[in-house]
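Lecture notes, continued. The same structure-token format from the folding unit now serves as the input rather than the output. Read the line below as a description of shape only.
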């Protein structure tokens, strides 16, 4: 699933491609909104909020209200921007959104969510999210304190689940969870109450996303060479880049909201056993639990 920096990058590209331009093609290929006609309207902006992408389209010639397209890529979604007439490099049946203005086309494929909302509905759709790590309104004191407050409300939860929960802070996915926990020397299964410095963890999370917000390739190691940009993510069974110990993986997480069974945080997690040692709060390792 694309993470906050990827969505921020996509929103920036869509904004540069369409903002201030009038749509001459607009297709929402989802049953509920297939009849929505946005042709003749001007795109006002594109922006991100955590892992959510919004495209704001102004009123039509008759003065009908503006429309905000709410997009979530989920696991497989992609945003493609190309010149009109270019051959698509993806199957046509995967297309869910087409926005065209002059010689430019924005195409969304395999989108997990696509809705046409009024601006107020769009705001309500993400009002449950925690502070956005890449938000223009991020405050180095107030935002960090708010994230720490939210995470601390469930002290017995694992830190791996807490940072993945978008209600605490918006923008972290499994890649940044793995890299963030590694850089802080924490096993992702460590309980929140045992994390020595939550504030430092939030500050680092913000720093990592900001550093990658305008990059096509995500880098956390400082090494931009192919295959060397990440510390532990994707390195199951391979040597840790820092100490050489083999990196391990496991499943971690449950539901973000017990009353919302579809809101799952069950994802793969990565850990270097030497750089991220288990602590007493974690209990016995899985092999012992199964005996």
């Amino acid at each position: 699933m694309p993470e906050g920096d990827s969505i921020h990058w996509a929103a920036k590209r869509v904004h540069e491609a369409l903002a201030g331009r009038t749509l001459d093609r607009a297709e929402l290929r989802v049953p509920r909104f297939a009849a929505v006609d946005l042709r003749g309207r001007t795109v006002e902006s594109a922006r991100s909020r955590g892992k959510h992408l919004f495209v704001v389209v102004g009123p039509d010639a008759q003065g009908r209200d503006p429309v905000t397209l709410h997009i979530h890529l989920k696991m497989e979604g992609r945003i493609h921007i190309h010149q009109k007439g270019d051959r698509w490099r993806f199957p046509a049946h995967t297309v869910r959104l087409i926005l065209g203005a002059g010689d430019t086309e924005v195409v969304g494929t395999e989108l997990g969510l696509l809705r046409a909302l009024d601006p107020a509905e769009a705001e309500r759709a993400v009002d449950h999210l925690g502070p956005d790590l890449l938000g223009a309104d991020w405050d180095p004191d107030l935002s960090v304190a708010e994230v720490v407050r939210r995470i601390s409300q469930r002290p017995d939860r694992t830190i791996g689940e807490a940072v993945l929960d978008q209600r605490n802070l918006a923008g972290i996915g499994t890649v940044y969870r793995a890299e963030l926990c590694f850089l802080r020397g924490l096993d992702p299964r460590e309980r929140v109450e045992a994390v020595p410095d939550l504030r430092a963890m939030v500050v680092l999370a913000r720093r990592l996303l900001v550093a990658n917000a305008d990059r096509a390739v995500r880098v956390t190691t400082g090494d931009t060479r192919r295959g060397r940009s990440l510390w532990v993510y994707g390195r199951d069974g391979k040597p840790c880049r820092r100490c050489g110990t083999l990196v391990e993986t496991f499943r971690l997480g449950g539901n973000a909201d017990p009353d919302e069974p579809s809101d799952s945080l069950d994802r793969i997690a990565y850990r270097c056993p030497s750089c991220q040692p288990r602590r007493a709060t974690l209990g016995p390792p899985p092999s012992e639990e199964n005996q």
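Point for the exam: The domain at 4-125 is CATH 3.20.190.10 (N-terminal domain of MutM-like DNA repair proteins).
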